[in-house]
Amino acid sequence: MKLFYSVLLSVSLLLWFERSYAYQTNKNADSVEVVMLNKQALANLRTDTAQAFTLANKAAGAAGRSEYFVGLGESYRILGILYSLKPDHKYAFEYFSKALKLFGKRGYNIGVAKVKNDLGTLYKANDPKEALTYFSEALPIAQKAGDSVLIATINVSIADVNFHQKRFAAAYQIYKASLGIFSRAGEEQEEISCAIKAGACGTILGKYQEAQSLLTDADTKARELNNAALLAEASLALADLYTAQEKFDLANKYLGEAGRINGGSKLRTDLLYTAYKLEFKKGNFKKAAEILNNLHLEDIEETKTKTLEQINLVQKKGEQDAELDAAKALLSQNKYSFNLFAGAAVLALLAISLVMLLILNVKRKAETNKKLSELNAEVSRQKDNLNRINHHLEEIIDERTKDLQIKNKKLSEYSSYLSHQIRGPIATLKGLMNLEKEGLVDKKECINMMNKCVSEIDDKIIDMSDMLHDPDRAGF
Fold it and tell me: Which residues form a coiled coil (predicted)?
């Protein structure tokens, strides 16, 4: 009999080991698949978002089945990035929060740093202060892990905030330092993007030679990668550079190349703004005013959208915090219920336990109803606040529209004034030229009179320039 039980135990252990080994083998195979799918999704992030969504969702499914939670967290992070690019900040924040929770539980600090950088990027356009908070939390984690590419990525995000806050010198130094890291690591897309940002910054700072070197190199590499988005950015930056240098033919060439690329609303806005600067620099003030008017109308819609997105972000963050608190409360309650059930092993106390549970349920319902009432009141208050914000936005839109109409009228008056003031001296010049051809006037006297006319035209142009740069000056 003992021999029988020994054999039975040995067979059971053997089967258990076999199943464990098979499970572990399948789990490892699934993990490799998840890593591969996530990498493919990242590669398609900006070139084919639909394919990236498919790959990330497939990776998330495989990671969930194999309980590969780090891979699942990376899939959620990629989905968060994709939703932020749409943009759909509600779902982006939701997936970033899921990824952060999974990475934090398993102590995967690199993942935590990446998500915090992504969250900072999500807030960058609407709330730079909040964005810098996330970046400052992510940077020491990446530095401790020694991940140079991640450190450079976070530094570029910080430089972006500096750029938008017009701290161009600081942003330029960070971009150039990060560019070297991306180049050495072979991160081509990040290298090109960083070079474009550094070149744009260099243009603003007047470092034209350095900016041209950075941007032409970025343009060449973007063409080699056949990356339309990066090529459009490089072309616009080059158009801006050549506009600043008054090389208008080259500026028109690169502006046209950027315009031929089918991009989103951000590319259109950047195209309009670059075209406006080009026409203004060339002195085509009427055309510049028309472009500025279109740009202004799009800017109003963008401002309103960004404001609403900021409100949604704040509301979503509050909802996530509330859900986390509710989950903690539910976990605490479940532990209490389990302990209560375990303590009720004696049949004699079962009835008392059931009565107590019923009483607790009634109280919980009463508390739930009270909380629901408070939440309804809070929702009403938030709705009133949103209505007030929308009303304020409409007032801002009306004010900016009136301001633009006044500026357009002023520009038209400037144009008429310049035409009127210059027409007289030019007519005199033509008359003198005809008289000189007919030999009806002394050559020296003709030259003196022509110099006088040219000086008069020059004075009128200088006067016109002063009035353009000083709109409050009473010139006419």
Answer: 365-392
